[in-house]
Amino acid sequence: MKKFLLVAIAIIFVASCAKDSGTKGSTVVKVGGKTITQEDVQVEINALPDMAKAFFQGSEGVDRFVDELVKKEMLYLEAQKRGLSKNKDFQRQVEEFKKLTLINQLLEKEMAAASNITEQDMKDYYEKNKDEFTMNNQIRLSHIVVKTDGEAKQALERLQKGEDFAKVASVMSQDKASAKAGGDIGIFKRGEMIPELESAAFSLKKGAVSAPIRLKDGIHILKVTDTKGTLVEFEKVKGVIGQKIVAEKQQESFDKLLENLKKNYKVEKNKDAIAKIQIAPTQPHPPMQMPEMK
User: Fold this and answer.
1) Phi, psi values for residue 189, rounded to 5°
2) C-alpha span between 101 and 95 (Å, rounded)
3) Could you give phi then psi for residue 267, rounded to 5 degrees?
4) According to the model, what pLDDT value does residue 267 have?
5) For residues 66 and 78, what is the distance between their CA atoms, to the nearest angstrom?
6) Range list of H helices, the chain
7) How far apart are CA 137 and CA 202, in angstroms?
8) Which residues contact 249 (CB under 8 A, 6 or more apart)?
9) DSSP three-state, residue 37
10) pLDDT tens for residues 204-216?
């Protein structure tokens, strides 16, 4: 129970940082001259995550919640009494918190428009990118099999320069039977290949080439030359599409904002000073434990 109370205080602290009620109303409790009203308590409770609210259900739960607010207020008053608010490190943290809060508000406003998408936006994306929502049930596969990492690197370099996969396979592949057919090894359904190859092959789009895959018989480079699959219905992927579009629009909005800021604010770097900054390697340490409250 004691550990639970500490967690509760931490939760309330986070909620308090999120919102400051500034309300008036019926007094619930007074702590050292500080009045906590019914509205104050309600605002604090409303700011809690849903999971945390479950800890304070019912009249007894609300009473426990008020007790946690009292403890928080006593700790705050004692910290002030000891002059900790004058500490330079504290003041720096307060300024940093204010800075991050303002940045967050700025980004929320900038990203608000980017978060507005329509059903048609999602349908348009779906129609233009159906390959993303097609579950491959069957693929036609070609491969190049070599013995060494050097040969695999050489084969990939030739492919990246634009050489035809079939030509490279016919020259370099150790699998002579498939080499004669330009590396073609036929059509496969899910479950017909060894797991190492299947996971790589069925993750490739049509025309894509895999990274080298090391097996007992050599190093394989795969290419999917054809696919057959089932298109997932729009309604089943609509949520995913919406999240993807919003994320892309927000990233574009953020990048645009930064580009505009670079035009408005001059940045001058002192490279010599930067070069002298050192970051000490992190050392593992046990988690900090708070004292138990009674």
Assistant:
1) -105, 165
2) 10
3) -115, 125
4) 86
5) 18
6) 2-18, 38-46, 50-53, 58-81, 88-112, 119-128, 149-160, 165-172, 176-179, 195-201, 234-264, 271-275
7) 8
8) 114, 115, 117
9) strand
10) 989 999 999 999 9
